[in-house]
Write a structure and sequence with these properties.
Layout: H1 2-23, H2 30-35, H3 45-59, H4 61-73, H5 79-91, E1 98-99, H6 101-110, E2 113-117, H7 121-127, E3 134-135, E4 154-158, H8 163-175, E5 180-183
Parallel strand pairs: 1-5, 2-3, 2-4, 4-5
Helix pairs in contact: 1-3, 1-4, 1-8, 3-4
Length: 184
């Protein structure tokens, strides 16, 4: 199960890097990114995740065997599929999928919203948190997808400055969650 989640997180991180590069005037497609490797990010977080995987497998050999079996079931996704998924995701964005604190307060009174805090635990102690929010630090999000609600549940992500929430919002949207917003 961890390998499957790690694979999904790696794909999402690659897509986020592509999105960031295209926003900065870099390569516009995955093909261009492959042709222009100097435009790639120097230290990819996916490499760190891959480095952590063998340690987890050594600790739990049975879980590693199960994960290997599950990975075999994962259908490979082509570049065109990823481009299509991100184009659809970005095309459905309204106001960059942000929500103001006032609008969030009103929405909480009317509907069930899953609040996701992607800050580090020490930030919660220092700065407080929204009551009822679930804390999953951004770096651990891919390992804790099972703690998230169904794909059609409204999710509002927040952090200290907004950039981690935007990364989490984009990643969750790419993974299939249909109503993810970032708190301004």
């Amino acid at each position: 199960m961890r390998l499957k989640k790690g694979l999904l997180v790696s794909i999402v991180l690659l897509l986020l890097a592509s999105l960031a590069l295209s926003a900065c005037g870099g390569p516009q497609t995955v093909e261009e990114l492959i042709e222009e490797p100097e435009a790639a990010v120097e230290e990819a977080p996916a490499e760190e995740a891959a480095a952590e995987q063998p340690e987890a497998a050594a600790e739990e050999p049975e879980a590693a065997e199960e994960a290997t079996e599950e990975v075999a079931e994962v259908e490979e996704v082509g570049e065109a599929d990823l481009d299509t998924a991100f184009t659809a995701f970005l095309g459905n964005m309204v106001a960059y999928n942000t929500i103001s604190p006032e609008a969030l307060n009103e929405a909480l009174a009317e509907e069930d919203i899953f609040l996701l805090d992607v800050r580090q635990p020490e930030e919660l102690e220092e700065n407080g948190y929204i009551e009822g929010a679930i804390n999953i630090p951004l770096r651990e999000l891919g390992e804790n997808l099972d703690k998230l609600p169904s794909f059609d549940t409204s999710i509002v992500v927040y952090c200290g400055s907004g950039w981690r929430a935007t990364i989490a919002m984009t990643a969750l949207g790419a993974l299939g969650w249909t109503d993810v917003r970032s708190l301004v």
